[in-house]
Amino acid sequence: MTLPAKNRLLDSVTIPADLKGRSREELKQLADEVRAEMIDAVSVTGGHLGAGLGVVELTVAIHSVFDTPDDKLIFDVGHQCYPHKILTGRRDRIRTLRQGGGLSGFTKRAESEYDPFGAAHASTSISAGHGFAKARDLRGKDNKVVCVIGDGAMSAGMAYEAMNNAGSDASNMLVILNDNDMSIAPPVGAMSHYLSKLVSSRSYRGLRKFAKNIVKPMGLANQARKAEEYLRGFAMGGTMFEELGFYYVGPIDGHDLDVLLPVLENCKAMQTGPVLLHVVTQKGKGYEPAENSADKYHGVAKFNVVTGEQQKSKPGPPKYTKVFADSLIAEARKDDRIVGITAAMPGGTGMDLFEKEFPDRMFDVGIAEQHGVTFAAGLAADGMKPFAAIYSTFLQRGYDQVVHDVAIQKLPVRFAIDRAGLVGADGPTHAGSFDIGYLGALPGFVCMAASDEAELAHMVRTAVEIDDRPSAFRYPRGTGTGVAMPDTPQALEIGKGRIVREGTSIAILSYGARLQEALKAADMLAAQGLSCTVADARFAKPLDEELVNRLAREHEVLITLEEGARGGFGAFVLQHLAEVGALDTGLRIRTMCLPDIFQDQDKPELMYEEAGLDARSIAARAIEALGRGNVQEIDRLARA
């Protein structure tokens, strides 16, 4: 599918105000052109496809009926927002999505006045919308607040906390539930089943047929629709949404502008407090490959528009996620107490592979990290060996449960922390920057970081053996380094690192996947006659104090290296050296970590270069600390 030869309508739309006064037929054509533009753009950039295709008509209708940006439109799970970006003055940059210096893949306040609230994690829109509505009321204004929540976000408890509060407060706001029967993988749990039951119930279908049969013989098609919608609401008036204080409307077809437009006009006119409009959409709508495989087309690489074939990764080392999954499966074959947990990301974490072999031992809790962590704690408390595979950035959402339900009780939950460090195109909202610090602060935790894929296999084996306290091991997005994989992974000695390369003047102590860059930096330094030791810490907690003491004692300069924010591994090393008085000996120590900013999206290697965690930056830092050597020579070697 490609753009029509003449985008007569889309070319005339720069901002949503340009939609005003358009006929329904024009808006339908505009929706087709927006869909084609989005498919064409994402085929070039890669990104989130299915969710955006499902809300094209809804987005056109909202911007046609409401007066954005004065009316506040808040998207939940911001990957639904590509059509919104096309209609809000960003079409000329849409092919920069998720690229360095380009548009964010999510809504972003700094990017446009049409993005009143940033959204990349799920289930925040109703809370934020309630805040906007209350601020409006306190200021005596009358603008509208519209929240579009969907793609599985209603499976998270935060959405219901917000509805409970907003419903009791009675501020006017509209929540549009985009019910596409999907999150990223097919949704799980009672909420999904409840929505499906509403749409498919015999009473609903019977009343719908009854309404049509009454008025259609009279040739009153529009009245038929209105009667259908009226009876639909009548049949479902006692829903849980109304019990929470929301006036419930729906479900309606989210792709039918003849229905969407008048219903949205009615909702806009309501002054009855919070309203929930239930809209049924199809993820991937209008693009056959995405319709037929919604989970695989949730997020895509560059692809061929005509065939739908996605650009394949070049052959190379296995991905860390696959290494984790294979290692866990191998361990689970030997120990039937091992179970897997994920929070709506079975494919992203490799737990889909685990589920194929152990369908009764893998649990997808939905977008509910808090519940997932405490669920794992319950499993551990009763003798199971739970592995909770959760992205670093999403584990933040369950941190109170990690502290209260896991750490304080010393329960042996094993956290497999995927996407540690910078993640490229997904940008700051998905970067795994903080887990080293927030887990390392907890008494009794064992914190590990894999420097390569073989180390990851050893750490899975190690975590299996840790049965008296919680543990975590982190690993990055992407492929491994190409090292040989062990036939039989071995449990590591807790709290012990390893020397990878011996030297005399400079010591680099790396925690995690920057080890290869540390070795490259050592080569650059060696070219100038500067001898360098490189060590793999393996553990941030318990820290290998003996190794740290030796490196501090035997070298002029000690550099710590990590893919995490300030307050992490380097801080732990400094704390120890201060306590033993090693900082009073003239040791020159430098900590290298992520900068104290939120970095925008780019290619991962460019992001690490910007962060100063590439080989060239490490070597230059060593020369600066040592006070001898030639930085210009380092630059020459880096370019070579």
Structure commentary:
The chain has 640 residues and is an alpha/beta fold. It folds into 3 domains: 10-300, Thiamin diphosphate (ThDP)-binding fold, Pyr/PP domains (Rossmann fold); 320-474, Thiamin diphosphate (ThDP)-binding fold, Pyr/PP domains (Rossmann fold, 3-Layer(aba) Sandwich), CATH 3.40.50; 498-639, Rossmann fold (3-Layer(aba) Sandwich). The protein is 42% helix and 14% strand. It has 26 helices and 19 strands. A 7-stranded mixed β-sheet has the order 9-8-10-11-13-12-17, with helices on both faces. It has a 5-stranded parallel β-sheet with strand order 2-3-4-6-5, sandwiched between helices. The model is unreliable at 1-5, 183-208 and 225-238 (pLDDT under 50).
Short description:
The protein is an alpha/beta fold and 640 residues long. Helices cover 42% and strands 14% of the residues. The protein has 26 helices and 19 strands.
